[in-house]
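User: Second chain of the day. Same drill as before.
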Amino acid sequence: MAEEEKLNDEGWHTHVDEHGNVIRHTHHQHSHEHGPHGHTHSHAHTKAVLNRMSKLIGHLESIRTMIENGRDCSDVLIQIAAVNGALNKVGKLILKDHMEHCIVDAIRENDEEAIRKLEDAIDRFIK
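Assistant: Same format as last time:
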């Protein structure tokens, strides 16, 4: 897993992983213009998440077409189950990114609010 890392004059780190995902972050405190935690929310898997979301949207459209065309309910339910599984995988990928980047920064910055928000998000995600 070779990663290329660059540091520019403003202290930003830019990584490119083996999948071509660009990761850009810094380890110093920012103003709140980037969100309530004082750090940006760029993640390693953004490209993969967006690709998966596009596929999910297409899959949902095809399920709607199945329903409009009066397809068998069992077939529709199987496709809905597939979308649910894929959506859960996207959620896990986002959670992984969040923990690897945002929560690591929050711990460094002693940002208890970010950690509390993660706990709340996990509770809602795992319901």
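DSSP finds three helices and three strands in the chain.

User: Great, on to the next one.
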